[in-house]
Each structure stands twice: as C-alpha cells, then as structure tokens.
C-alpha cells in the first residue's frame, strides 16, 4: 500500500469517474486503474462498485476511504512543517466564497494580500455554501468564506466579523418614508429574494418569519428568482418593492442610491461572516495570514461590532 494509491483512491471517490480522477491526478486512466486494482488485491476487498454509473464505493470501501483521507492529510503535514520554517509564505491557497460575499469582500483584501505575499497564488471560486463544505471535505478547497453558524461537525468556523442587514426600498413604496424599519413591517409579497440554495435567502425568510411577515416569496404578478444581489438592486430601483441586502454591499453606493437604504430598528439583524476550514485542515500559516488580512481590510465600524442578533443560516 502506497500514498500514491491512497491519493488515487480519494480522487475516484471525489469525482466518481475513473477518467476524470486520472485527469486530476495527471496520470493515464490505465495507470490509475491498475494501482487501485493492486490496492484492492492487497487488501482482499472490492473498494468500488464499478457496475454503477457513476461509480460508488462499497460499504467497506467507504470505511477505507475515510481512513485514507486521514492518512493522506497527516502525510501532507510533513511538508507543512518544512513550509512553516520558511520566512516567506508561498504555495497555492484555494478559497471558496459565497456569491453574496464575493463582490463586496474580495476587493477589500485581495490586492493587499497579494502585495504582502507575492509567492502565494490565490485560487478563488464562487460557490454555494453546501458546495464549499463538500469541497472542503474532499480537499478540493483549503478554506471557505461564508456565513455561519452551520452546526456542521466536519468543519471548524473562525468568525471574522458581523455585518447588519439593511432594506433597499423603491422610493414609491410606503416604507420609503421611514428612516428605520422593523421586521414585522415587511410584506413578503413585495420582497425580492434570491433563489433556492442561497443561505442569504434563508436568512431573509428567517427575518420576515421572526417579524411575522407573510411567508411567500414573490412580488406581485412578476415572480423573478435571482442569483445576484446586484440584479435585485436594479429591480428595486427601476420597478417596485424592496429587498434585503448585507451591509458591505451598500457601503460604496452613490449618494442618490444611499437614499434607498434603510436600517432596521435595534437590535439590528446581523449575519456572521466566518473563515471555515475542515477539521483536519492544512496550510495553517497561509490561512492565518488570510484571516488577518481580511479582518484588517474590513471597515472599523464593522470589525469592532459585537455579536448580537445573528440570523440563522438554515431553517425558518
């Protein structure tokens, strides 16, 4: 049994396809298949059910794969020990970030991080929360930037800051005359929301449910489910109704659009933004550097805010 065989084993489990796994391991499919066959012969068990498409691990194979992940992760720590002794940080850091954070948070820290650590290559993907957690588990990402708490025992959450929710209201809407609003004033029939799968959608529905708002999610006769907060902003500006936005998304708005932003009455609903890693995570020094750079880049009033009225990510 070799580490290479275990890495091939994990690749097939991750991609559930021998050709795709071989491509990601930079070997030919016959080479990968031969090494896995040798591993199965040595163990005397079948690790994958090859009769199914996509391939699936056998019940015993699942247990072997779980242990193989531990072994491979521990072996990589040897290289990390050497890396930690070097003064200059280097290597690749793979980051997954949710779409409601990416356009507002990435520009705040990415330039300063790259200037400070020129030997580090950042690879950033916009993904939904569930995809980030899954990729962390399969070691396809090193770290995630998302909204917590998730109550998932497979990951470790490192809170970075707390940002409030604000309402973005069309000037013709009755609530537009209010300086601040309360959740119970929200009418879900007039509220534009993101489509299913976005944690931000769940949080918006939780805010409305807590305030006694109606639990539908359409706006009049035009039911548009968007994956972009920027699209929802434009709809509110040019059509009607309102939407809820995270605080970072309205910080640099032109003055004329700032008039559409309305805060909530105290205690204002918040979302907890965290750096998330797998329990057996590697690249600790790189991730520590990323954490410090993000916190330093966030505006002071957000950075210093205490945890108060955090809205649940899941469940209404």
UniProtKB/TrEMBL annotation:
SUPFAM superfamilies: Periplasmic binding protein-like II, Winged helix' DNA-binding domain. Residues 1-58 form the HTH lysR-type domain. Pfam families: HTH_1 (PF00126), LysR_substrate (PF03466). InterPro entries: LysR_HTH_N (IPR000847), LysR_subst-bd (IPR005119), WH-like_DNA-bd_sf (IPR036388), WH_DNA-bd_sf (IPR036390). The keyword Membrane does not apply. Keywords: Activator, DNA-binding, Transcription, Transcription regulation. PANTHER family: HYDROGEN PEROXIDE-INDUCIBLE GENES ACTIVATOR, TRANSCRIPTIONAL DUAL REGULATOR HCAR-RELATED. Belongs to the LysR transcriptional regulatory family. This is LysR family transcriptional regulator. It comes from Pontibacter aquaedesilientis.
